[in-house]
Write a structure and sequence with these properties.
The protein is built from three helices and five strands. A hairpin with a 7-residue loop joins strand 3 and strand 4 (about 80). It has about 100 residues and is an alpha+beta fold. The strands form two sheets. Strands 2-4-3 form a three-stranded antiparallel β-sheet, with no helix packed on it. A two-stranded antiparallel ribbon has the order 1-5. The protein binds iron/sulfur cluster.
């Protein structure tokens, strides 16, 4: 069962018997690979002007990208990237005591 840290903290720990899971605060916690935004990958929103070198040239910043960092066009198109801390809240892992879940 893959869980975020917040979800794991709602689960009973079979070792502690009366405590909830400590997630990444426990040596048995394992992180699942980051493979897409639903599992902790940072989201990226391409700008209306993907060749923009400045945020002013990029066009209107989408409402849902508030707080996201602008990246100018280089090898990739210009756009906004989600903060790492926000993506980490969606990252999932599992208790290593129960084996590796199917991913
Ligand atoms: S990772 Fe497993 S052993 Fe560690 S606190 Fe959570 S449920 Fe308990």
């Amino acid at each position: 069962m893959l869980l975020t840290k917040h979800e794991a903290a709602q689960k009973w720990c079979p070792l502690a018997q009366s405590e909830v899971c400590m997630a990444d605060g426990c040596a048995m916690w394992r992180w699942a690979p980051i493979i897409n935004p639903s599992n902790g990958a940072r989201r990226f929103m391409v700008a209306d002007n993907p060749a923009a070198k400045t945020e002013q040239e990029a066009g209107t910043k989408p409402e849902h990208c508030h707080g996201w960092e602008f990246h100018p066009c280089a090898e990739d198109p210009a756009g906004w990237i989600e903060p790492e801390a926000a993506a980490n809240r969606r990252r999932r892992g599992y208790c290593g005591l129960a084996g590796v879940p199917s991913l």
